[in-house]
Amino acid sequence: MGRRTPIVAMTANVLADQVQKCLAAGMDDHLGKPIIAAKLLETIARWTASERIAASAAPAHRTSVG
Fold first, then answer.
1. How many structural domains comprise the chain?
2. Are the beta carbons of 1 and 24 closer than 8 angstroms?
3. Could you count the other beta carbons within 10 Å of the beta carbon of residue 60?
4. Which of 9, 19, 32, 52 suits a disulfide with 27, CB 3.0-4.6 Å?
């Protein structure tokens, strides 16, 4: 099963309509410049936590020997 990689825009375009355009274009999240390390790490953690939750909710694949 393929995994989907989230796309986070990192741009100086931070006005509400500019952020909406990024999201409408397919970005999953938006960080305005200048990038603050703590915010970047928080965003990465949020998206990787979503991936871990989805993976843990998926049924385990088991093979039977018989």
1. 1
2. no
3. 5
4. 9
Please check the confidence at residue 41 and state whether its pLDDT lies above 90: yes
Specify the pLDDT at position 54.
Answer: 63
How far apart CA 8 and CA 24 sit, in angstroms, is: 13
Can you tell me the distance from the alpha carbon of 1 to that of 47, in angstroms, rounded to the nearest whole number? 18
Determine, yes or no, domain membership for 65: no
Higher pLDDT: 8 or 60? It is: 8
Residue 30 phi, psi (nearest 5): -145, 135
Per DSSP, 63 falls in state: -
Cβ atoms 36, 14 nearer than 8 A: no
**Under 8 Å between Cβ of 43 and 51:** no
- Residue 1 reports pLDDT greater than 60: no
Structure tokens at 20: 């909406």
The residues that bridge with 10 in the sheet, in sequence order, are 31
